[in-house]
Structures
1.
Amino acid sequence: MRYTVFIADLLIYIPALCLYIYISNKCENSKILLTSLSILLYPGLMLIDHGHFHLGLALWGILALFSDHDILGSVAFTLSLCYKQMELYHAWPFFCYLLGKCYHNKKNRLLKLINIALSVIATFAVCFSPFLQRKEDILQVFHRLFPFARGLYEDKVANIWCSLSVLIKLKEIFSLQSLLLLCLVCTVFSLLPSGLNLIRNPTFLKFKLALANSSLVFFLLSFQVHEKSILLAALPVCLLLPDYPFVSFWFLMISTFSMFPLFVKDDLVLHYFSTLLLFYVVVGITFNLTPNQPSKNQFLPWIYPLLPYMLVLSLAGCLLLNVASLVVIPPPDKPDLFSVLIAIYSCIHFVLFLTYFNYVQFTVNSHTGKSSSEKSSQQTSPKKSIQIPANNNRKIKKQ
Amino acid sequence: MAPSITYVAAAITCLKLLLIPSYRSTDFEVHRNWLAITHSLPIKKWYYEDTSIWTLDYPPLFAWFEFGLSQIAQFFDPQMLVIRKDPYASLATIYFQRLSVIFSDFLLIYAAHELCTKVLRHHGRTNEANIFYNRNFIMTIMLISNFGLLIVDHIHFQYNGFLFGLLLLSVVRICQGKNLQGAFWFAVLLNFKHIFLYISPAYFVYLLRCYCFKSTFDTKISWRSFSFRRFISLGLVVLSVFAISFGPFIYLKQIPQILSRLFPFKRGLCHAYWAPNFWAIYNVIDKAAVIIGLRTGLLDAHMIGGSTMTGGLVQEFRHTVLPSVKPHITLLLTIISILPILMKIWSNPQGIQSFLQGIILCAFGSFLFGWHVHEKAVLMILIPFSLLVLESKRDAGLFLIMSTVGNYSLFPLLFTQKETPIKICAMLLYTLYLFMALSRFHGVRSKFYQLPLLSIPESLYLMGLVPVEFFNSLLSPMLGLDVRLPFLSLMLTSVYCSLGLIYSWFKFYYHILLDNSAVKKDKQKKH
């Protein structure tokens, strides 16, 4: 079992990632190596060791889009969608990006659109062909894929519904149908801004940001979410790591933290702490962990100097909650106290990250079309790094 | 900036933490038992206790070290401090012992840090930021994330890390010219683990020649420059360390008992798994001769006792065709093998370089010809050798062969399924990094048909390790050979590795002695 995961990784996920880093960062070998290493060492993916397969396929899709093989990209992504329906989290940006690209394509825009649409439909048809014979089969497949009957959320997930349940018991107020509708409306409305922005201005950097945004929206607002789904948001954020090291690093730490109860259940506490520290070390070697310099017309300029301290505070909070959940025995009437606290704590972070990523997506001043890769390399903070302040360093190391 | 030693140390410590739940050998129980002995018995019984078969057989400072650990261990699990015959390993015990190894390794990290900051010279290279060019980074990787140390200490379980830390510290002090401190640390090291006695001749000759004689590193020794003050202070430093360590036992009149524990000559010529040395080849020749003899009818089957097969026992083992080897012969061979380098240090010391060569060759000689050598002793060659590789391209090439072969020869230490991918991946990663870094550092471009820094036969030889491993881990279980002839794959590994090690020993020696004569010729020309 473990070997199959390992080999699937070795064949699909790791080459895609390395190739992506290789073609997107045109810099020296050792930098490429370290960047790939730091993404590969992301603890969330390492510790939850199944499901890399669809992420790998999605990554191939992203890779193909980056190198302008739009049809190949859409086929790869459709395959990953057929492999795991959770990839719907990424579908919206793919759609918007391709649509935007077709629209901005001056010549034969319709032809391109039709090409892509046909390839997607054909891929779907091939994947589902065994089940397309009878109508009941199709319904049954869909019923299995989207088990709405399971309720709004299962365990303690760090999304909005679960966090709100501390204040309002939505499950008890509304019926299943109206909850479903509520989720749908909220999700669609929060997806719209970033998608429309992407259609208007389809650059690759915006595409990556939109991927992060859409998967975060799905994670926070959709129906029946699992803790592990945060990994779907973590993948695009991993790709953003070279562009926005500070925020991405912060997000990746929090996302791993949000799965802590799972690790406790699987007896992976030791691995959790050591891989987090390892991740911090490698990212610290590779990137400059200071927030990106604010430009002149930026919103809230006073907040930037405070950000490193906020990172330390937030990670210290994580550590506190981790240790507390291991050491303190919760009161008997609230056995899940720490899981809920961890969920709420991460949820607040995720909402802020979502806001920030949306904000960045709208404010990234980008030229249209091909220059996106140059753009992203400009966005990268200076390579010669200044280390983060000493106290900052020390506090994170305690993790 | 390339990552500093702190980062590497933090990363490697994380890796060690991740290895806590992995396989552990009987050495784990050995050290657990020593914790129990030193904690629950008075000093006078330490070297007499034999409830468990794993009796205390390290010098007294190590016993004191275990005593210190046991003071902390009692807060983890008092049960582990009870002397018992059967192994005991609770979760707390595992965590405690593993963590104690990880923490004691900080001494090695400190020593590596001292080496990088105080001894290594910085050349104004342009790409210091690249991890394949930075001197400190390469050195740090070779020393503190050494593959051999990692698997021997953190999977197999032993405390070699901090012992090599002591060795390194002593070398660093001598490199800095602080000879007395160097001698002190080495004396401490000897009292932790007596296997380091093998390299003490190099220390002795070097310190006598280059510290007690004030004359500079000239070819001719001036007898008048002998300084009694230095000689006596050196002697005092070393003797006082020994006095503190062995003093209580001298007072208790237990020295013969301790010595019999420290030097158990009852064990056989070779360890259960043959270390890749001269005797491995000797044994194989003997075996081959027996088989050929039986086939051709030159030997009678009943002349050969049944016990000569190379079973996995630590007992004595008789050779059939070739003469059996007695301990004093191995000792003699070892001494003969190290004499040339000692004479070279005496007659023509070239500073620290000779000293390091002396250490390496002493370790090498004892490894190749010694009595009952463990395969782990190869680390005693590899770790001092890594200090030479940045200075000379030739040594770097040799080191690549030795490190690859030596590390590969450690593979049989970990025979469990679960550890196989770990050991293979870690070995590949470490070896590939060494090849890339050293070839770039020395500015060698690699060609596609040979490995960088190596000649074609050498590359072929190293590539041959791949089929050997393929045979050991796939073919042999598939053919059922691991049941019928369990010793076959071990024998193959150790013979194959011993060829490479003996070859590098010859080459290294040859170059050193050749250098020596070359220098002499130079001087003669000048005169």
2.
Amino acid sequence: MLTVAVIVVLAGWFAVSVVGQVDSRALDWLKARDHFSLIPRWTFFAPKPGTTDYHLVYQSSTDGRALTEWREEQLADTRTVLGAVWNPSKRNKKALCDAVRAMGRMAREVGEENTWQVQYSISYIAVLSYLSGLPHPPSATQIRFMVLESDGFFPEWEPRLLFLSAVHALPDRQPPDDATAAPAPVPAARTRP
Amino acid sequence: MSIAQAVLEPRVVVLGTTTLAGVGASISTLEWLRNARQLAPGGLYDWAIVGSRRFAVGTRLRARVANRLLEYRGFLAVLGIRFLSVLLLPAAVLAGTRVAIVAVLAVVVGTTLLMNLRTVYGMDGSDQMTTQVYGALLLGYLPGTSLALSAALWYIAVQACFSYFVSGAAKAVSPQWRSEGVIFRIFNTQTYGYEPVARFLRNRARLTWSLGWSAFLVEMAFPLALVVGFPLVVLFVLWGVAFHVMNAVVMGLNSFLWAFAATYPAVVHVAAVLAS
């Protein structure tokens, strides 16, 4: 009896895997609840392969005055032979990439007038938290970041802006009296048309 | 016992699968532990942020358990237990006691699912395949019958072939993939590419086109591995290993090699069973 149950479960699991390869609204409900990632998605690099690079840059400021140049947090690894076996930085870089892509996707979906909604997404908050934890000048009280897209090693076009965040207070820093508190009001954000 | 006989023996196949999956899963778990700082408060995977999803919010038992297991210290313990259990699993298979195998597999699957739950970003296809492999093996061992274990091995083999087929078919129907420059454009990115390869492919449109087409045609043909019999199935396995080694070296996708190689013993097993 248990054997039959196992075979039925395996058959059902495979059937869901098959259906899970196509985008369908009927499955969205199920996928949204697939917290354990039991439904695989095998369409690697397809139908639209990633053929551009994303860049995450941030700037520290105080009282709206920039204290640093825009600094880049690397989202890509340098290839090494060891990296083919042991590649711990890949996880963080892919996580940042995923979060940045999710922000870009959401910004496109909600439209330019509603880009402020992106700052309430987990991606945005996670990236903001991560960047806030990086070293900043002692007098810095605020941070903002932007996402750029570029054309790889041999570019055919100039990097373009995808998303510009609001200005946020850095945690545990004394903000000036009129500094923006997080979450910020509608951010000065814009996306690629 | 000859190789042809060995691949028909489910226990040998499971030993191969759990060993290969175990190497990949232990590396992957150690990589997460190496990034422990990012799991801590203020890190990229700060539980205060990634745990703000509906299932972990509130006072219900589900939320309380999730918060206990997935906050920083709890999750480090989960990772530690996973590391030990994936290494212990092949030994349990060798010992051959079903209760021990089921117990270790239950821990492996439990910690794998918790990992999937905790790390909303940074997961990839290798994590998905590892979940499939361990999940199917646990189900296969539960009843204690050879039929159930055989069904699990079939599941792994068919899922592996399906994954390659879907990957190839999704590329075949994509206008971008059928165009000339897609392989160059992927290798031209810093994210998944490699500058020397991009430089080499840059002005070789025909070669780039051929590489793109051959990639998805061979992927789509992979299910044939199940019907060509033994030892021809080994050619598909060799292609798979070469493909994933290349992806590990050039694209940095190190974990795919072990996760997908872990399915090959089951692919060879099913091919041999069908041929016999």
3.
Amino acid sequence: MAPLYWIAILLGMTLVTCLPRMLPLAVFHHLRPKGAFRTFLGFIPPALLASLTLPAALASTPTPLAAILALAVALVLALLKRSPVLVILGGVAAAVAVDLLR
Amino acid sequence: MTPGHPFRKGLAAGIPVALGYLPIAVAFGILARSSGIPPWVGMASSLIVFAGAAQFVGIRMMALAASPLEIILTTALLNLRHVLMASAIAPRIERGTRRSRLLVLAFGLTDETFAVASTRPEATFPASFHIGLNTAAWTAWNLGTAVGLLLAGGLPPIVERNMGISLYLMFVALLVPCTRTARSMLWVAILAVGVNLLLSAIPALAGSEALRPLLATILSAFLGTLLFGRSPDPAACPQPAATGPDGEAAPGSAAERGDS
């Protein structure tokens, strides 16, 4: 492939990645949303994090059981107010342990 | 730069993101190397595109010699969710921030940096905090990519094949403190998972990991607005202590302001 092919793809990918990030940020930073729309935007973080996590997380380890146990360990550690680093390491350790025991 | 500078605070808050990114970026580097595309394309992709899922898909499509238009349209679809993230984070950035700083901030807005920033306890924060957070994430992503490209494998296989869950675990770590204190957020999160599962029963959406979570998010946030009707309080997301390793109050936070 010619370098131009790669450069065209990289520049195009950069453009369509940056625009959805930049335009709303520029617009809503100056026009602060109010009322119901503000409420809607406030609910976006928990909704997005939850829908990105499940069910996709179940397919992120060799077996769904490893993912379930990793999520359970992470949930307990998060409920115990441990740091995110510890939550991640604890969850991954649980997944590795399940994999070792297979 | 003082230890309490928002940029440094952002760098510290980005450590969990960086930890989650490293193994995945190494995997991306390995994939790019094994796909037969020039290594500089894989590295440039991480440097200037900086969009994990889109990069993985893009590399696969490049390896299959897809047309530039196909690859770019797929990337655009995968990144549509960032419209929601940028819209939600925009009002949280301190007023009066220069447009050039907003553009720099926007470049580094990913699922994970959004997750950290959107669950901060303060109602607004300086752009430099988010830029610090993005810098930690971007640096880790590029370091990992370089390691993957150069070494073609840097972790024991058993760890590598289980590290894919680390980013989801980070979402759990960030989501739980919010849902503990704001019941409406808990219900919206549960609603989002339920809607996501229901949508996966629709054949056209079953395989779409880009469109389905996006629709589930919009639907459940809309339902949450109808059901709960008042604005969720951003201060209802207490940040776990260790993300601020120096133990200082974040700029603009209730603790720093002396609010009880």
